[in-house]
Amino acid sequence: MPGKRAVGSGGEQAGMALRLRSARGSDASAIADLHIASWRDAYRDILPAEFLASGIETQLTAHWSATLSGRRRPGAVIVAMAGRHLAGFVAAWREGVNCHVDNLHVRPGMRNAGIGRALLSFAAQRLQDQGAVTADLWVFAANQGAIRFYLSLGAEMEPPTSRQTFGQTVIDRRIYWPSITTLITACAR
User: Fold this and answer.
1) 145-158 pLDDT, tens per residue?
2) Could you give the CA distance from residue 46 to residue 170 in angstroms, rounded to a whole number?
3) C-alpha–C-alpha distance, residues 132 and 98, integer Å
4) pTM above 0.85, yes or no
5) What's the number of CA atoms in the CB half-sphere (13 Å) around residue 164?
6) pLDDT one-digit tens code per residue, 41-85
């Protein structure tokens, strides 16, 4: 069924099957809440505590409300649903022939169950269908778990660089796949 896909045993948490579908405007609040929870968990040693405590709520809520309403950019926002609860999401945009993964987040406590891999695969396939032939994303250089995950999927990595994220100066690394097919194939393993 278009926009939906059952995730196998690697993408199940406590016996609950996941369903992948395109995000709707009504998902904006849940996506923002998950995004905030994910940042507070994964980036607590990377971003300033005061920013994570209160600075991101207004920005991410406004960001997802705007992203999921009105005219959308070419690409996809996909959610992974565990029953009626949001387990994760990915936002990927087509930039020319490139699939740029802007966000990939899985609910804390549900990581390492195949949800991120399933979301990334689904989004990459969707954008390949839209004409993308390469893929990339930016990751905090200190987020070694994410870097290991992407490298295990055949990614290549550029040297660290300083960038701005929601007003915070961070050290990022560009992760990229010269062929989106490499990413899709690796996600299927």
Assistant:
1) 999 999 999 999 99
2) 8
3) 5
4) yes
5) 2
6) 999 999 889 889 887 888 899 999 999 987 778 999 999 999 999
Could you tell me whether strands 134-140 and 98-106 are parallel, antiparallel, or unpaired per DSSP bridges? parallel
**Amino acid in position 131:** G
The one-letter amino acid code at 12 reads E
Tell me the residue type at 61.
T
Query: What number of other Cβ atoms are within 10 A of residue 179's Cβ?
Result: 13
* Torsion angle (degrees, nearest 10) of CA 78, 130, 96, 93: -10
- Rounded distance between C-alpha atoms, residue 179 and residue 81, angstroms: 29
Between CA 35 and CA 37 the distance in angstroms is: 6
How would you class 17 by CB atoms within 10 Å of its CB: exposed for 0-12, middle for 13-18, buried for 19 or more? middle
